[in-house]
Amino acid sequence: MAFFFEVVLGGLLAGVLYSLVALGFVLIFKASGVFNFAQGAMVLFAALTLVRLTEWLPFWAAFAVSCLVMIALAWVIERVVLRHLVNQEGIILFMATLGIAFFLEGFGQTIWGSDIYTLDLGIPKEPSFILESIFDGGLLVDKLDVFAAVVASALVLGLALFFQKTKVGLALRAVADDHQAAQSIGVPLDYIWLIVWSAAGIVALVAGMVWGAKLGVQFSIALVALKALPVLILGGFTSVPGAIIGGLLIGMGEKLSEVYFGPIVGGGIENWFAYMLVLVVLLFRPQGLFGDRVIERV
Fold it and tell me: Domain with 251 in it: what CATH number?
């Protein structure tokens, strides 16, 4: 029984890492109704900025400067790209984010280099045992994963309160429903997009910080967006809590299926489990478990 709970806990903590990336997708989608293909590149760019700045600055100073860099990046994206695409079709905005993704990867490599960098968060890398009084020998956990879980919980709570309790959050949801209608009642679209891209940039920085500490800051980090996509689909493109719950379900499902069914089929279930799960979900609930139902009037 202890082994089962250890696998479940490991899966839940791994799912939190996916959710950190998925949160950035949710933020952009709630503001524009467009899938932000550049989110993975933003995670990479933020991690590169942070790790290179720590070579000259204390960690928390480097983190603060990195936040400012991501906010400045959001301002540039809004000014140069998004402002000229107001009220355009969703596919046009999607292609714009695709271009932003390739630009950020190349720009980041030009400024910071393409080596693999080690990011030290000051968290011991040795695993620890918890609940030793309940389970014989305790449950083995990764301290970095626990740190990620705490950070993700704080982000979700803050973002949920932001969307539900503030006027900016209400305006953001109005923009997501209809750009033109939101503008007609005085909602400043450029201001809302600047805020949401800034928030997504800071979320990308946090995700890059955790993934960079776990895997090393390298260009393959940009590919974690592909791992976060099933989380996004499962939880729902418009749900902040759904991004976390979707990540937990997928992380736990991957670990359990790999441990208990992997030996039967020769392994590798962990690589495709998430995509098969969301395929089943899409057949019955295309908007995801927590996404808003789309009602079309004819």
Answer: 1.10.3470
Place of tokens 């503008």: 183
pLDDT of residue 294: 56
If you write DSSP's letter for every residue of 245-281 in order, what string do you get?
HHHHHHHHHHHHHHHHTHHHHTS-HHHHHHHHHHHHH
Tokens representing residue 236 in the block: 């729902």
Residue with tokens 């006027």: 167
Rounded to two decimals, what is the model's pTM? 0.83
For 286, phi and psi rounded to 5 degrees? -60, -25
Decide the pairing of beta strands 128-130 and 139-141. Answer: antiparallel
Query: What gap in Å lies between CA 101 and CA 89, rounded to an integer?
Result: 19
**Residue 176: predicted pLDDT:** 66
**DSSP-derived 3-state class of residue 35:** coil
DSSP annotation string for 50-101: HHHHTTTS-HHHHHHHHHHHHHHHHHHHHHHTGGGGTT--HHHHHHHHHHHH
Q: What is the mean pLDDT of each run of 10 residues along the chain (298 residues)?
A: 78 83 82 80 90 90 93 87 76 86 88 83 73 71 80 80 77 68 70 83 88 82 80 83 86 87 78 86 82 57
Residue 14: what pLDDT? 82
* pLDDT score for 240: 78
Residue 293 in any domain: the answer is: no
Q: Judge contact between 251 and 204, C-beta under 8 A.
A: no
Cα separation, 274 vs 263, in Å, equals 18
Give the whole-angstrom CA distance, residue 73 versus residue 57.
20
292 in a structural domain: no
Range of the domain at 25: 2-284
